Amino acid sequence: MNTDRKIRMEINTSISGDNTIISAPTTRGHIEIDHMEIMPTGGANTVIVKLAGASSAANATPMEQFQYAFDDNQAWVYDRTTNNTLECLEVTALIINLSASTLVTGFVIARIVGE
Predict the structure, then answer these.
(1) For the whole model, what pTM was predicted?
(2) How far apart are the first and last CA of the chain?
(3) Which among 20, 10, 24 is positioned nearest to 109, based on CA atoms?
(4) Domains (ranges, CATH) in the chain?
(5) DSSP assignment, residue 23?
(6) Distance separating alpha carbons of residues 108 and 88, to the nearest angstrom
(7) CA–CA gap between residue 31 and residue 82 (Å, rounded)
(8) Backbone phi, then psi, for 6, in 5-degree steps?
(9) Cis peptide before 62 (omega within 30 of 0)
(10) What does each C-alpha distance from 36 to 2, 9, 26, 44, 111 come to in angstroms?
């Protein structure tokens, strides 16, 4: 019987490029985001944050639609109660790709489904 495994991960990164927030499920299943809050606070004028379902997919579909430009100290909150869902592809990690080296903090609450 498959059950969803709930997880909460802190986001605290300042490295440009791909940053793994939740590792990929090992054999099967996918990550579904229930709630996410992020905020760049590192002093960069603008940073582009991309959410990706795998490191190699950071700039490719289907996750390229989740690309956001933030000014310093501009928060973003996602909650699953909205019409859009954030899900990673099966057996892929949740990646945050930063366009510049700037501190980004927050947290994510997610479920591993079908593991």
Answers:
(1) 0.82
(2) 10
(3) 10
(4) 5-113 (2.60.120)
(5) P
(6) 13
(7) 17
(8) -85, 140
(9) yes
(10) 24, 10, 23, 21, 12
Contacts 24+ apart (CB under 8 A), 80-84: 80/32, 80/33, 80/34, 80/35
Residue 36, classed as helix, strand or coil, is strand
Question: What does the pLDDT profile of the chain (115 residues) look like in tens digits?
Answer: 567 889 999 999 998 888 999 998 888 888 889 999 999 988 877 777 777 764 444 455 545 557 788 888 889 898 887 666 788 888 888 888 888 888 999 999 999 998 7
CA pair distance 100, 98, nearest whole angstrom: 5
